[in-house]
Design goal:
Number of strands: 0
Order of helices and strands: HHHHHHHH
Radius of gyration: 20 Å
Number of helices: 8
Helix content: over 70%
Shape: elongated
Strand content: under 5%
Distance between the termini: 48 Å
Largest sheet: none
Number of domains: 1
């Protein structure tokens, strides 16, 4: 039996093509949509893309790390803040002041939904070949990756 099948698979794949870079960068941003189904696996998917492609493409690594940090802050952090606001409103509702806090809790509930829209927008921008930088996060991630 020939070993050609086993020797054709390289243990050290080369750099990604520009089209592959755009695709993986887009998927890292669109991983925010995984949160709709799972509630929390979007950041895990973005981190997995970063870990797999960090040595092969700085472009993919940058966009995947951006998506990971963005989702941690806006999806996980926003969801936690929303849950705490609703819990406080529920407890305070027994003494009437909680009803005044409920509109604030509703507004905080929009944070994760806004993150879905912004992450999807980032994925579309990157798939079209444009570089995308999240507000307040992009420069920090770039400086962290550059060392």
């Amino acid at each position: 039996m020939s070993n050609d099948l086993y020797t054709s698979v390289s243990s050290n794949p080369g750099p990604l093509s520009q089209a592959d870079e755009r695709t993986w960068a887009m998927l890292s941003h669109l991983s925010v949509l995984a949160n709709l189904v799972t509630g929390f696996l979007g950041p895990v998917a973005a981190l997995a893309i970063y870990l797999v492609f960090k040595e092969r493409s700085r472009y993919v690594a940058y966009h995947a790390m951006q998506a990971f940090v963005f989702q941690l802050i806006w999806w996980v952090g926003g969801g936690t803040l929303t849950g705490l606001a609703w819990a406080a409103s529920g407890v305070l509702a027994t003494i009437l002041i909680g009803f005044l806090c409920m509109p604030f809790a509703c507004i905080l509930g929009l944070i994760p939904l806004a993150a879905l829209g912004y992450g999807t927008f980032a994925g579309v921008q990157v798939s079209q070949g444009q570089d995308f930088k999240y507000w307040l996060i992009g420069d920090w991630v770039r400086s962290t990756l550059d060392g």
